Structure formats: C-alpha cells, structure tokens
Amino acid sequence: MSNKNLFLKSGFIRAPIQNGVGRFVPQLQRIVLKFCKTYGASQGLREFIEQDLVDFAKENPSVVVYLKPRRHRGPVIVAEYLNGDRVWMSVHNKTHSEITKWIEVLRTQQGDISSLRLRKYQYTDYPSVQGPWTPFTFKDPELNTAQLPDPHFGANDRLPITATEKLRLLFEKQKLSDVKTAE
After folding, report:
1. In a domain, 131, yes or no
2. pLDDT (tens digit, 9 = 90+) per residue, 121-156?
3. Counting Cβ atoms within 10 Å, is residue 27 exposed (0-12), middle (13-18) or buried (19+)?
4. How many angstroms separate the CA atoms of 49 and 134, rounded?
5. What was the pLDDT predicted at 126?
6. Complete DSSP assignment for the chain
7. What angle do CA 61, 67, 73 make, to 5 degrees?
C-alpha cells in the first residue's frame, strides 16, 4: 500500500439511504455555476445557461441551482451532494455540449468516490458472522474428496430418460418386431 492512502478518507461504496429500495433519492443537492459575463473561456457555460439551464431545473426539481457571476475569473462548476461531498470542476474553454455532458455526470453520481479509500469491497447494513454467501456455502464437505461422477452425490441414475433415448428404444423395439414378423 502506498502512502497516498494515508491521506484519503476511508469508507464504503454503498447506496445511500437504501437508495432504490422503495424510492429513488437523487444525490445531487446543489450545483453552483460560477462564470464571467465577458471572459472568453466562459462562453460554453454562458451558452448552457442561456439554452439549457431552465430545462435542467425543470427536470431536476430536487437540485438547487445557483448562478454566480464573477469578473475576470475562469468558469467553475461546484456540485454538492447529500453525503457532504463537494466536487469542484473547472470548465475553462469547454464547449456547450461538453458542459452539458459533465453536468449530467455530476447529476448522476453520488459524490467524489475517487478520493475514497475502500475498507472493504462489500458492505451490508446487517453483517453476517458466517461471512458472505457463495454457491458452495451449503454443499456437503464429502464432495471435496469424492471421485466424480458418483451416484451418491448425483442423481444421474435416477434421472428420467431423455426424448432421444426414448426414440432410440422405440426404434430398437420396432426393429425387433420387424425381424420377428419377417421370420
């Protein structure tokens, strides 16, 4: 493990507030669009504000949108999430379509999980003492040393015959009856 993990906060990746169980709770709480009214690098963000911002606000009523004009500064988007994370993104010289895509990315994610050191790969609200379930959890331990195929473990001898086997048996009976009638 490198020492960069010493400075990352640790946690779990999990659906917050049982998200998706019962109802969906959008995680984006607030988005702040900081731009300059005259600066050339803010052109894409100004176009987004003029053309798509009202539609974005109508489609996402749970997201509070702030516009913050600043003189002679680069354009910035700051997204704040329900879990307290803040994602700061510079959109310097980005086009209108790129900004639309980035805002959609910010809207659909649950915060800044790239700066999170994972403690475990799995998480549950109700942990089990026995560990995670696998397909081999309730198998008979004798199966580990058995030579397969073994009629004791498999139902191969008790399976009903297949349609192909049935046809083959009928064909052989018909052949035998044809031989007997020919004699």
Report:
1. no
2. 666 667 777 777 777 778 888 888 888 777 777 655
3. buried
4. 51
5. 73
6. --GGGGGSEEE----GGGTTSSS----EEEEEEEE-SS-GGGHHHHHHHHHTHHHHHHH-TTSEEEEEE-TT---EEEEEETTS-EEEEE-TT--HHHHHHHHHHHHHS-S--TTEEES-S---SS--TT----TTTTS-GGGGTPPSS-TTT--GGGSPPPHHHHHHHHHHHHHHHHHHHH-
7. 150
Find where tokens 């690098």 sit.
41
Question: Can you give the residue range of the structural domain that contains 86?
Answer: 9-118
> In the chain, how many domains are there?
2
Amino acid in position 45: L
What's the predicted TM-score (pTM) here?
A: 0.57
Cross-strand pairs, 117:
10
- What tokens appear for 74 in the block? 């680069």
Q: d(Cα 110, Cα 107) in Å, to the nearest integer?
A: 8
Q: Identify whether 145 is part of a domain.
A: yes
Average pLDDT, rounded, for the chain: 82
Q: Which two tokens stand for residue 173?
A: 């009976």
